[in-house]
Amino acid sequence: MNLSYILSKPIDLEFKQIEGFLNNKRLNKGKNRKLTEGKVALTYYCAKCDADLSFVSSDEIYAIGVNDRQISIDCVLTCSRCGNQLPVWFLVESSNEIHNSNPKVRLLKRTEKFSSSVQNAKNTYGDFAELLGKAECAYRNELGAGAIIYLRKIYEKITKGTAQAAGIATLTAKGKNKHFKELLEEVDKQKHIIPAEFSNNGYQLFSELSEVAHGDNISEEDALSKDELKEMKLRLKENKGNIWSGFVSFDQENSEKIDTPEKCIALIRKTFNEFFRDMGLDPREVDLICALHLDRPSHLHFHFEFYEKRPWLKNKRAAGYKYRSKGKVPIKAIDNMVERLTSYTIDDELKKRSDEARSALYKRKDFSEALCRDVATKKMKELAEKIPPKASFPIR
What we know:
With 396 residues, the chain is α+β, with helices and mostly antiparallel strands.
């Protein structure tokens, strides 16, 4: 069994022993190496051929070292019939050092850059294949709320399709769409599409899906309007710049700081704007998406993703503006964010006393005068350093 066999199978968290592919030579972090381990083959839907077909890589794929146990692999898969292409990225992990002669490995992640011409295979799920594929991708990337949103869309399509087939009206007397819960109950009474354990319990499944998908437990002030959400999705789709992502994790002692969506939103509002400014971004020109994970009460965390709303840097080589080209986050910005988050967890009473002491200090006349002198001295030194050593000034 070789590496291409693992890459050509669904994601499996069980380690499997394969033939060595790095020739017992360590692949250092950030370094790349060409591998000849056979072709990677996966099935996708090709819109040009209007069929599910095998997409196959060339004999050569490229690996980038992550650490002693992980490598990242990039390759381009090509439709076996028309040559349509799909970029795919894999993250492979070994139970021991990955450059060993017979490592035990597993496929941790696989991410495809789908387009209108290539989508998930439709042979099994038909019209639902695309949404199911997106749900699976979100789940693989630990974005549970995102996965549920796609699943709920499938849920709605099945319900409305069943209503139309059964002759149940989907519109109100005024010509507007019925509230989905109302439509679901009507359809279920006739066609029994929901298992009894859920429908008998006040449609709890629907309520929980709706809460995650639409944020019913978030105040109206905090929730996005449908138009705002639509605009945000459009900007993400058209974005040609960097997309940054990460997560913020709290230990057991401080997890209570974000144990509700309201608390999490409050923390984000208080800390992220300064983080964006430290990165050289304007908070007003950034879209921020966050997903709070409450599945581990003793270790709460949230994932975040952000990107520039529009190109705003003056393009020096052509007319118009461009997105920021460099995506590296300055270490100083990260350090400041860690300090900001740490300070957020400090006991409220202690923080209040600290703020009062700082305020009292700034109000003291001797402190204000000393601070002004220090600032003036610093500015004078900065100005003096800019003056050429041999500069002369006329005296009048």
